[in-house]
Each structure stands twice: as structure tokens, then as C-alpha cells.
Amino acid sequence: MEEARKSLSEIRGTVIRPCADRQDVEILDMARIQVDPHGMITDVTPRGMSSTCSPTLDNVVWLPGFIDTHIHCPQFRVLGSASGPLLEWLEQSIFPEEARFSSDHYAREVAQEFCSALARNGTTTAAVYSSSHPGATDILFETFANIGLRGLIGLTLMDQNAPDEVLLDVDSAMQAAEQLADRWHGYDDRLEFCVTPRFAVSCSPEMMRRAAEFAQRRQLPIQTHLSENSAELEAVQNLYPEAKDYLDVYEQMGLVGSRSIFAHCIHLSEPEWERMSTAQASVSHCPDSNFFLGSGLMPLDTVRRHGVKMGLGTDVGAGRSMSIRQTMASAYDTALLTDAKTSSGELLWYATAGGASALGLNHQIGYIAPGYHADLIAVEVPSHVPRDRRLLDAIAFRRDHGAVKAIYVRGRAIHV
Q: I need a surface site. Which of 3, 22, 83, 324 has the fewest CB within 10 A?
């Protein structure tokens, strides 16, 4: 394994490759991937190993790094806190923990633990909510930069309906966002500043409008929550009685576009789905979190019917695991409960290529093809598992088996 981590000029072995023309993956046995010194894939040969060649690592399968399209760093240490549905959970478990991120020392400890956990689980790219503290957000960017992960990271914007310790007024928030974007957006072609209004309940109209203007002016991605919980929908309706629906609130504020990532989207109406599709906005499907908070079931068939871009999100800390494999298993369960047939192949596509598309990065990552960045992982799979569709089931659903044996971002080894 150490030899494999020194150089990524060539990989030999079994490869799971997302398809470019459908939401599925294909298995390449005895394949060879070649990578240039800049970490770009230059060639993929489906059967590039001769009978005398040894695989790069034994008993592993190579695939694109997992992409987590929705996760909260400051919730890492309270993962699995069972304190009720969304709004009560925020009040009792989350806001008190996020207030602790006013301490740079605490923020640095958690950021290191968080990034290490991402890497251990094979996540090479994540769309991350920091806390509402500029210092903690700067530390999170710095930790991503030092470890070598890829990320869309945002200062969480919130100026109402939460404890004072986690609120930041509009002018201070926008000034901090400008400074963070100046420092980190585009860093090493791996990091982006993501404009992050928490959700319509915790953001004033001025905060959301200023955030949208900032995102448009700097051409930045946007992430927020949408239609997660029935009590949340009622709160939004009370705050914005003139809006025709929840999505309309964000549309009026200028937050809906082709690089907008909306987490959950459980209770959207048909007209909202139609407008999501027209705007080319993306959904982060967070099924484990949805189960844990009792929020509901996101309808996969509706996403497909409208052609909406979708990736998978662990949504830690309401999600109970940093593993996208756990999320795939929960997504499979959700599909069964909503009469939407899916497969391990489709879910692996959403965990890689689908996530890349949802984050607007599908020209760089998510595929194993010439011209793409070598963001790759090696997952241990027993040799007795056949190299057919049962292999895909083993990757997607054997969530307690199969360690990540190697992880690379743009050809550079990540050590945790």
C-alpha cells in the first residue's frame, strides 16, 4: 500500500466507472488507469493488464472518490443526537454546539477530526456548512487545504430566530464572506467559497438578498435547505405569507439558479419541482437524516421525471454516519418505501458522477476518463465477491465491511 501511495502514475486492477450516458456504472476488470504528473487521467484501458501484471493493491476495487453534497462540520461531535424533529433538534442539540465554534481552538480540533473522517470514508469532495463564525470557517478552509481534500465550504449565514451566540448581522456576514472568498475561492483548484444562507427561517430577507447578490457578483455556488420538515414549512409560510410556496421565497430573493444546491426537498409540490428543473438547480438527497429526524421520504421518481440534478448527502449530524455508503443504503430503503425502483449501480452513480453534477463539477470529477482529475479511492472487497453486479452491491450496501485502502485527490495521496 505504501508503494501505491507514493505515485499515481498508473493504477492496475478492477475499476468501477460511472457511465456518461446513463445513471449507472460499469465494471472494468484487469483495467489500467494512467495519470500524468498534474494529477489528470490520461488514459483508461478496459483490459490493460497482462497475465503477468500484478494489481496496484490486492483485493480492492477502484472508483471515483465519493462526493458528499450536504454535510455540517460543526455538528460532527453531536452526530446522532436524538432530540426530536428538525426545529426542536436545532434548538436543543445543534445551536448550543455550534456556539462553541467561537473558540478557534475548538474549531481547529473539530475541523481536523471532521476532515480525517471524510477521508477515512472515501469522501474526496464535500459541500460543507461551517458555523456562523468567520474564524472557524477560515480554519475549516485551512484544514481542507492542508489535508488535500476538495470542498465547497460556506460561512453559515443566519441573523434571526436563533440564539445570539450563533447569529451574525448582515453587514458583518457579508464582509466576512468577501474576505473568505478572496482568500480561499479557487485555492489549488480544489476549494470554492459557497454562499450558505442556512434556511429561510433563520435568514432575514435582507440577508438572503445580499447573499444572492454576492453569489451572482462573484459567480459562486449557493447551498441551503428546502422543504425538509412540515413544521419548517409552516414557519416559512408564517414568515413569508405572500410567497406562493417555499421555493418561491428563495426565487424572490435571487437564490435559485444552476449552481444552487437544495438539501432535502422532501415536500415540494409539482410546480416547485417543475421550477427546480427549469432553473437547473440541484437536490442533495439526505435519506439517513430524513429517517433520523422523521422528516419524510424524498421521491426519487419525481427527481427522475423532472430531470433534476441530484447527489447524495450524509447531512451529518442529523445523518448518523460520515459514510456515503450508509447514505446509499438509506437511499435504497427510501426508494423501496416510495415505490421507486433503484439499484446499487444507480446509487453509485449518484454518489460520484451525480454528486459532481449537483455541485457543478462534472467537468472535473466524478468520472474515470481522460481529462478528468484523478480523484480516486480504493475500497477493499473480498476476493470471493464476483466481479459482476454483486460487486456493486458489496460496495453500496456492505457498509460495515470494506475499508478504504487508498484515497487520492488530483493524484495526490491523502494520509489520515
A: 3
Cβ contact 267:233 at 8 Å = yes
Q: Among candidates 206, 271, 207, 232, which has minimal Cα distance to 86? A: 232
User: How many whole angstroms separate alpha carbon 147 and alpha carbon 139?
Assistant: 12
Tell me the per-residue pLDDT of 267-282, one tens digit each, with 9 for 90 and over: 999 999 999 999 999 9
- The answer to whether domain 2-64+367-413 has CATH 2.30.40.10 is yes
Q: Which residue has the cell 498534474?
A: 38
Between the alpha carbon of residue 136 and those of residues 105, 106, 153, the distances in Å are: 9, 9, 11
In 156-239, where does DSSP find H-type helix?
A: 170-184, 205-218, 230-239
Which long-range contacts (C-beta less than 8 Å, at least 24 apart) are formed by 26-34?
27/387, 27/388, 27/391, 27/392, 29/387, 33/62, 33/368, 33/374, 33/376, 34/9, 34/10
Domain residue spans of the chain: 2-64+367-413, 66-358
Q: At what angle do helices 170-184 and 205-218 cross, to 10 degrees?
A: 20
Region 142-151 average pLDDT: 98
Q: Residue 229: is it exposed, middle or buried by C-beta count within 10 angstroms (0-12/13-18/19+)? A: buried
Contact 364, 356 (CB under 8 A): yes
CA distances from 165 to 131, 175, 224, 239 (A): 11, 18, 20, 22
Omega of the bond leading into 122 within 30 degrees of 0 (cis): no
Which CATH class name applies to 66-358? alpha beta
The Cα 291–Cα 266 span in angstroms is: 11
Please give the helix or strand (H or E) that residue 98 lies within, else none: helix 95-99
133 or 82, which is more confident = 133
Beta bridge partners of 133: none
**Cell, residue 67:** 462526493
| Cα 364 from Cα 310, distance rounded (Å) | 17
Q: Give the strand pairing for 150-154 and 123-129.
A: parallel
Cell numbers at residue 281, please?
438547480
Task: Cell numbers for 297, please give them.
Answer: 421520504
- Helix, strand, coil share (%) of the chain residues, nearest 5: 40, 20, 35
Q: 377 pairs with which residues across the strands?
A: 63, 407
Cell of residue 62, nine digits: 477502484
Contact indicator for 249, 240 with CB cutoff of 8 Å:
yes
